[in-house]
Amino acid sequence: MILEGFKLDKKVAIVTGSSTGLGQGMATALAEAGADIVGVDYVADQKDTAARIQATGRKFMPYQMDLIHASVESLSKLVADVVKEFGHVDILINNAGIIRRNDADKFTEAEWDDVMDINLKHLFFLTQAVGRQFIAQGKGGKIVSVASMLSYQGGIRTISYTASKSGVKGITMTLANEWAKYGINVNAIAPGYMATNNTKALREDEVRAGQILERIPAARWGTPADVAGAAVFLCSDNASYINGFTLAVDGGWLAR
């Protein structure tokens, strides 16, 4: 039955940026599909996420980590700690990320480095650590990174974010080329304009918000639920022949 292929029973998923927004939505959806969740976030208090996941009957392990300042060694330790707790890991959702907005000629080194460290550098090295574990386990695995529609477009006043998200798309394709032979599926989701913390300032700007909505064929901002279904699909057996693809979840923005 086709619905059986969407089940994630007995799977263990690491989700970064799990305390709010898209990360919380994807973590909850994976739990609803049957997975136990390790929620990685810089905040210690993930009570809301824990309650949502525990309501599904699945286990939730909070893991506090500041991914901007994390060391490569600490990312490897994260994976080791998960394996020590659960015995294995099967899914990685690279969701944590930040954005800095400034004119390109005024952009600072800190605005560049902070974004690149969490959105690209530490995303790769956590993926590397998980990929090594997948290879050692010998049973494949699923990796889904959150890219952006700016993986396809330039954007305005978001130079480091655009560079990092273009890099996420590239990493996704390269790792798929290298790891598909191990049964590891590496894909990404490119959200459009989502009603999350990152877009709060835009949504509060009536002029800019109006311009954005005029271009979205779906005529609304996206929600965590819109991304959650795509994540469950890409982490499921039904996506076993999808490799290196970045799926736009943008209400049709890129079609305009």
Question: Can you describe what's shown?
Answer:
With 256 residues, the chain is of the alpha/beta class. Helices cover 43% and strands 15% of the residues. It has a single domain, classed as NAD(P)-binding Rossmann-like Domain (Rossmann fold). The chain is built from 8 helices and 7 strands. It has a 7-stranded parallel β-sheet, sandwiched between helices. Strand 5, helix 5 and strand 6 form a beta-alpha-beta unit. Helix 1 packs parallel to helix 2, helix 3 packs parallel to helix 4 and helix 4 packs parallel to helix 5. The protein is globular. The termini are far apart.
Summarize the structure.
It is built from eight helices and seven strands, in the order βαβαβαβαβαβαααβ.
Attribute tags:
seven-stranded parallel beta sheet, 43% helix, 256 residues, Rossmann fold
SSE string, helices as H and strands as E: EHEHEHEHEHEHHHE
Structural class: alpha/beta
The helix count comes to 8
* Structural Rg: 17 Å
- The number of distinct β-strands equals 7
Q: Order of strands across the widest beta sheet?
A: 3-2-1-4-5-6-7
CATH superfamily: NAD(P)-binding Rossmann-like Domain
CATH-defined fold name: Rossmann fold
CATH class bucket: Alpha Beta
- The global form is globular
β content, as a range? 5-15%
CATH architecture: 3-Layer(aba) Sandwich
Topology, please?
Blueprint: E1 12-16, H1 21-32, E2 36-41, H2 47-54, E3 60-64, H3 72-86, E4 91-94, H4 109-137, E5 141-146, H5 159-179, E6 184-191, H6 200-204, H7 206-215, H8 224-234, E7 246-249
Parallel strand pairs: 1-2, 1-4, 2-3, 4-5, 5-6, 6-7
Helix pairs in contact: 1-2, 1-8, 3-4, 4-5
